[in-house]
Amino acid sequence: MQIRVKICGITCPEDALAAVASGADAIGFILWEQSARFISPVDVKKITEFLPPFVHTVGVYVNPEKAWVEKSAAIANLSLLQFHGDESPEFCSQFHLPYIKAFRVKEGLDLLQCAQQHANARALLLDAYKAGMPGGTGCVFDWKLIPAALPVPWVLSGGLHPENIVEAIQHTRPLAVDVSSGVELTPGIKDINKIAAFMQGVRACENL
């Protein structure tokens, strides 16, 4: 089965096109102003208007105002929303675009309950928990904390990079994977060689 890949934290057209050329299914843009990878909706549009069809354009938000989501999503020409804060199911599902809900996995978090609460989500994104950091931690969480049978599609994130992606997929068997810092030179600037190596690892797992 094909494993979907999202390259997140894109800030320039060159990196977006390199990610798509390598086979990425989705490109993520951080629309949270406190992030080192923040990009304005206007600059996102300059990238999305040149992307080929069938590539998802994902806007990543952290506890946003409703008006900001509506305005930025329209300007940026997004196809999918990703909420990475403490947003309620009611908040996430009020927009005209489908959404992914991210959870920072740690001991005590009931992912089955999370899945039930966000049954309308296109998928759950499972990321690593680090106090004070909503995402982009570069840390791996304990994959054993993922329930054996989550009733919704889910995406593996958190500390993935070319050297551990094969192990990660073999251990967790996700529908999709999400990478940002693991294929970067500096925050927001990607390394084309790392992207290629990461994608090579993903594709190798599809043949196992």
From TrEMBL:
GO terms for molecular function: phosphoribosylanthranilate isomerase activity. GO terms for biological process: L-tryptophan biosynthetic process. The keyword Isomerase applies. Residues 5-200 form the N-(5'phosphoribosyl) anthranilate isomerase (PRAI) domain. It catalyses: N-(5-phospho-beta-D-ribosyl)anthranilate = 1-(2-carboxyphenylamino)-1-deoxy-D-ribulose 5-phosphate. Its EC number is 5.3.1.24. InterPro entries: Aldolase_TIM, PRAI_dom, RibuloseP-bd_barrel, TrpF_fam. Pathway: Amino-acid biosynthesis; L-tryptophan biosynthesis; L-tryptophan from chorismate: step 3/5. The keyword Lyase does not apply. It is an enzyme of class 5 (isomerase). Keywords: Amino-acid biosynthesis, Aromatic amino acid biosynthesis, Isomerase, Tryptophan biosynthesis. Pfam families: PRAI (PF00697). HAMAP family: PRAI (MF_00135). Belongs to the TrpF family. NCBIfam families: PRK01222.1-4 (NF002298). This is N-(5'-phosphoribosyl)anthranilate isomerase.
